Amino acid sequence: MSYFTSPMTILMVEDNALQRRQIEAQLQPLGHRIITSSNGQEALERMKELVPGLIIMDAVMPSMDGFKACEMIKADPRTADVPILVLTALSRDAKDRSYAAGADDFIRKPANTLLLQVRVQTHLRLHALTMRAGTPAPARPVVLVASASSLIRSQVQNHFGKDQATFYEAQGEGQARTQIMAHRPDVLVLDTDLAEGSAQALAVAVHQAEEFKDMPILLLHNPGELETWSRLQEPVADALDKPLVAQETRRRVALLARLAHLQKLVQA
Known about the structure:
Blueprint: E1 4-13, H1 17-27, E2 33-37, H2 40-46, E3 50-57, H3 66-75, E4 84-88, H4 94-100, E5 105-108, H5 113-133, E6 142-146, H6 150-160, E7 166-170, H7 173-183, E8 187-191, H8 199-208, E9 217-221, E10 238-241, H9 246-267
């Protein structure tokens, strides 16, 4: 059967019509084409004709749930590389079950709009870059951790693995700017809590600088702080709430390190 790929198309698999409309409204500012399916089986049938750039998957649906659909999508060589973001209100072990089924990401409903948007954008970019550059061997990233908290700076390094990256630290905006110029990190892990200066001002400055505009930023934030970032254009590539959990810190830093590596390969 013939099919075509559409790298910037999002397939939303959601059985609740109200939820579909809400998610579409959250993603509408991004400008991507969104197609929908009401369950996993319908999504598999849809993907026989069109392979999207990203799948947003509910977990609990009739006919075929999201976990089984993830397994089948990842088992098919045509679709195995398509990122799947599970978006569900299901609690308890839903995150572990999603990752075990092959999902690439997980957000619990109701999703913060900015978080959903930045995760979607990052996964679409990663998928598009992977289609161009293939799947290269991982590189040892250079990571700058900017935070007023020595605990946060230490946790990021320990959670990711001190021997897995070259780490630099900064406590405030001014020191972070100096470190960026001196070491040109691949990833900036930016805490909203800085010893001096503004995390938002630093993020804006990074994206306005031609040589650093593509550097992915992982924002570490407290509950409720993301809303103040929504007015910024392309503020961050990902966000993670505090207190930090080792598995999620590792997953988020690794994701952005991979994005930075692929960007360099494509630009070379």
